[in-house]
Specification:
The complex is a heterodimer of chains A (85) and B (539). With 85 residues, chain A is mostly helical. In chain A, 56% of the residues lie in helices and 0% in strands. Chain A contains two helices and no strands. The chains are: A mainly alpha (85), B mainly alpha (539).
Amino acid sequence: MNDKIETKDQATGMGQGHVLDLKLPIGWLLSAYGLLLGIYGLATKKEMYAISLGFNLNLAWGILMLAIGGSFLLTAFLKKDKAGS
Amino acid sequence: MDPVITLNAVDYAIIGGYILVMILVGYSLKKYMKTSEDFFLSGRSLPGWITGLAFLSANLGALEVIGMVANSAKYGIATIHFYWVGAIPAMVFLGIFMMPFYYGSRVRTVPEYLKLRYNEATRGLNAISFAIMTILMSGISLYAMALLFKLMLGWSLTGSILFAAAVVLLYVFWGGLSSSIYNEVIQFFLIWLGLLPIVFLGLKEVGGFAGFVAKLKEPLLHSVKYLGTSANPLGVDWFGVVMGLGFVLSFGYWTTDFLVVQRALASKNINAARMTPIIAAFPKMLVPIIVVIPGLVALLVLPEFSQTALPAADYNSALILLMKHYLPNGLLGLAITALLASFMSGMAGNVTAFNTIWTYDIYGTYIRKGKPDSHYLRMGKYATVFGVAISVGTAYIVQSFPNLMDYMQLVFSFFNAPLFATFLLGMFWRGATGWGGFFGLLFGILTAAVHYLLYRLGVLHYASDMAANFYQAWWAWLADFVVTIGVSLFTAKRDPKELVGLVFGLTPKPKAAARWLARPAVWGVLAIVIAIVLNVIFW
């Protein structure tokens, strides 16, 4: 098994270079969900939330997810700034 | 038959969003797949937190979640044994003691370790059986997913099978193990976000833990207290739980199943590799929150599971019925997406395990040796395509033979327990020889099969199927252990120079990290202590 890099091409494989920062897709996905659920929560009537014991769970959970997604994005962008790319 | 749940446009938007992200992640990883190591092992470049969460999520499949909620409704709090006794010690052991040999030896797969440590026959036995079982499991879970969505949501069976297969094929073909791992980490967050609402609402409705104590029968509330008695809901005694589940079954799965071990091998260095299962152990201890609590809640709030009569519905439908009971559209879509995510990443995990073992251990060993790396990378991509095709084919066959699912789980269990004995001796006793390993493994598997037959024929008696399962694992392990030692004493020894890096005593110990907080041993011990404390609290 030869672990050495054999061609210049291989130099940009998983082992080197900048690979997709996972915080970005997680951040975008959760933020998008948060916005969607939050707006949906605002747009819908109270009766729908009888099954969730009266809580407008779409709105509440939407805000929570937006916050979590947002913090992922924030950490990802702060790291990028620090690296000065 | 009408579907149990109706989804609206917002729910579908949530599901669609996730599918899109999975495909985009695969697409953006495409350009990094330059070598076979990039494709099958993520170039050994991933940080511990990613491999750790992927390690856990690979195990936290949808069938596991649904099945454990069902077990909780059936057995009560004793179900936590699957998480605390039945997982934490094994995960910590893997990280602290076995990873130095797995990762340090630079083997690319579990069978490859067996080849280097024992002999070609041992590798062949493991590689071929695992490859077959894992790709069949992929098809079986594909079918289980399609069936669930058909019954619950009214989706077309064929449509779900082909659609899910197409999405998984696409992102694994493009991004290999990395796609699988990244999507598993996303799945981890979705599972918690999708299922926690049920936990909160459920606890509120039943009146918190006090509500459980007031309304549920005593044996359902204790994990340890009733184990030795006839009121024991699990039907398994002390020895069965500790040695069967806690030791053999649990260690057999966590330390040798390539589907989970592969994630640790993708780590960027030995410390990250050792930390992978240990990082996974902490959230693992919390999983009972989203699995055991809903199970107990189901008993109290769902009319189908009222404790006075026999259940009106299969326990496996408890989770879906809870979703219908509590979740408005919107959050409902999120919960369904979490299940869909788990199903698909489970299938992706099986496909990546299959294409790796096929390419390195079967094709690259028995069919075409000595080709340049680009040849094997291409083979890996082809293997992904035919792996998915086999899965789809299997899904169709399972339709006509629904019991196949249970038989597959059963057959898998014949192999895991003995394999653990083989690894234990291989990694910690330098006297284990090649043929010792092979015959030990063979006898262990046969013991499991024979034990099962004797139980089914009524020759052996146990209090429950679960007890039989735990004891079968124990005897299979013991048979492998004894035969391996026995045969090793009479066959040719390996040259110790060849075993460097593979066995305790012939391998330089990894340098302990300077920072105390970076040492796997520290976190491992912490995980075990917390697990013990939790067991005491819920005893």
